[in-house]
Write a structure and sequence with these properties.
Number of strands: 0
Number of helices: 12
Radius of gyration: 35 Å
Largest sheet: none
Shape: globular
Distance between the termini: 81 Å
Number of domains: 1
Low-confidence stretches: 56-63, 312-332, 338-360
Mean pLDDT: 76
Strand content: under 5%
Helix content: over 70%
Length: 360
């Protein structure tokens, strides 16, 4: 399947299940309300209980003075810090659980719509798919989180090595400055672009493995580790799938940039700008949610066509035409001799009958 066909099918699939975009918006509203209830209200109550006065923190120097004595700050507001941290952790657990549940239902609806083109969205089907894939998706997310930690550690080691080599690079650039400023500028940009390119490639590879791993998780019903290995193997054996994801994500970044350009100028307008920018921000979030679902749908469509719906190839044991071994010329000559030997007596009998009739 070509890229254009994949993207076209993904748009048709999401347009047919547009309710998924509404559910994404509902998740945003619930997260916002949850933030106010779980963090905002406890924080306000804690300020009242501990008598914390924030009027003296209007300037940056006041905030710096507040953190000048951390021991005194911890002893004075230890209860407030515990309440804030507990509320924040509880909110993070709530928001993550809600996100995984909604994502599981969305992924399930997208995958089922690909397997069954006649499938139509329903809240009952959404909740059924969400319950079915929630725990596998949770374990897969935890596993990818561990992979991300490993990548961060590897980056730390690389940064340390580059720090050791940084002196040599700096010396090269300094020497180039003494010779030619243009050469120094070129070398500085060159080394920066190499580091940025390496980071960008690793970033895209990680996201691609995560997304295709979710496809393997749904279609193959595999565990977290098997889904990860299946995604890596699929991306390695079908490299166009990686470039498809790069194309989709690049399109998402470009679309988000244009949406930001449209909504940002309204914030600069006094008073009315805040009122106008609020619905624009909501529309921007809805559009971004739509594009994210398009990415998932395109990845699932491409993965299903390339990995799940493979063309059936008949093996020699099942193919009747392949099981028939062509006869050699010697075998054909032997068969012709056998046929001639059988036909010879029959011809002699026929001649004897004709002679008998002629004598009679």
């Amino acid at each position: 399947m070509t890229y254009s066909e994949t993207i076209k099918n993904s748009f048709n699939l999401i347009n047919r299940n547009w309710q998924l975009v509404a559910i994404q918006f509902g998740m945003m509203v619930i997260n916002f309300l949850g933030f106010l209830i779980m963090i905002g209200i406890p924080l306000g109550i804690a300020f009242i209980i501990f008598g914390l006065d924030l009027t003296g923190l209007a300037e940056t120097k006041d905030i710096a003075g507040l953190f000048s004595d951390p021991a005194n700050l911890l002893s004075k507001y230890s209860g407030l810090i515990i309440i804030v941290l507990s509320s924040f952790l509880f909110y993070m657990v709530f928001a993550t659980t809600l996100y995984l549940y909604v994502m599981g239902g969305s992924v399930g609806v997208i995958g089922r719509s690909i397997i069954e083109p006649s499938f139509r969205f329903s809240m009952k089907g959404f909740f059924a798919e969400a319950k079915k894939i929630f725990f596998p998706l949770m374990w897969f997310s935890l596993f990818m989180g561990l992979i991300l930690i490993v990548i961060v550690l590897i980056f730390t080691v690389i940064a340390f090595v580059l720090g050791l080599l940084g002196g040599g690079i700096t010396a090269i650039v300094s020497f180039a400055k003494s010779q030619d400023s243009t050469l120094a500028l070129f070398l500085g940009i060159f080394f920066t672009m190499i580091l940025a390119l390496i980071g960008l490639i690793i970033f895209f590879i990680t996201l691609a493995i995560t997304t295709y791993g979710m496809a393997a998780l749904f279609f193959k019903r595999e565990g977290a580790i098997k889904a990860f290995t299946s995604a890596v193997s699929f991306l390695w054996n079908n490299q166009p799938s990686f470039w498809l994801y790069v194309l989709l994500f690049s399109g998402y970044i470009i679309a988000s940039f244009f949406l930001m350009l449209i909504t940002f100028p309204f914030k600069l307008i006094p008073i009315i700008g805040t009122v106008v920018s609020f619905p624009m921000q909501i529309m921007s979030y809805v559009a971004q949610s739509y594009f994210v679902l398009i990415i998932f749908a395109a990845v699932f469509v491409f993965y299903f066509d390339a990995e799940i719906k493979k063309p059936e190839v008949l093996s020699p044991s099942t193919d009747p035409a392949a099981s028939e071994v062509p006869e050699s010329p010697a075998d054909m000559n032997m068969q012709l001799d056998d046929i001639s030997e059988v036909q010879a007596p029959q011809q002699e009998e026929t001649l004897q009958e004709k002679d008998a009739k002629g004598q009679g």
